[in-house]
Design goal:
3 strands, 3 helices, alpha/beta, three-stranded parallel sheet
């Protein structure tokens, strides 16, 4: 059983969110009321993810292994 509003009013930042476990995590957080910022390295996969997730997901292109892209 899930609480549909468990994360209402919360913000989550998910790295590697354009596919796989990251994407599934984002979908769950959105379903449970969170606002979500997603990051990834590829413009194409991020654009695709945003189409699927809708305007509730803020997309930020960044490579978390490069300090200049996250600082």
């Amino acid at each position: 059983m899930t609480n549909d509003h468990r994360f209402f009013g919360r913000v989550a930042f998910v790295t590697g969110a354009a596919s796989g476990i990251g994407a599934a995590t984002v979908e769950r957080l959105l379903r449970e009321g969170a606002k979500v910022a997603i990051t990834g390295r590829s413009d194409a996969t991020l654009k695709s993810a945003q189409k699927e997730l809708g305007p509730e997901a803020l997309v930020i292109k960044a490579d978390m292994s490069k300090i200049g892209e996250i600082a």
